[in-house]
Amino acid sequence: MDDAGIGWIAAIIIGGIAGWIASSFMKSDTGIFLNIILGIIGAAIASFLFGLLGVSFGGWIGYLIAGIVGASILIWGYRAVKR
After folding, report:
1. Residue 3, in any domain of the structure
2. I need a surface site. Which of 16, 47, 52, 69 has the fewest CB within 10 A?
């Protein structure tokens, strides 16, 4: 997050948007607080996974893409464990 030049307030806003998009894409009914958490944690997880593959995203758009992918992975994982 620091490498991309994203501040904490921007991370919360972008994380919320990413979580909302992921929950809409995955047809999950989550609230705004959980959307923010999913987006921020999802971005960290996706950035780590993409880093292992040698892919890096920069800036706000990259953080948003990573957040959407990561939040979708988290929603999928939650559903898999829940069953």
Report:
1. no
2. 52
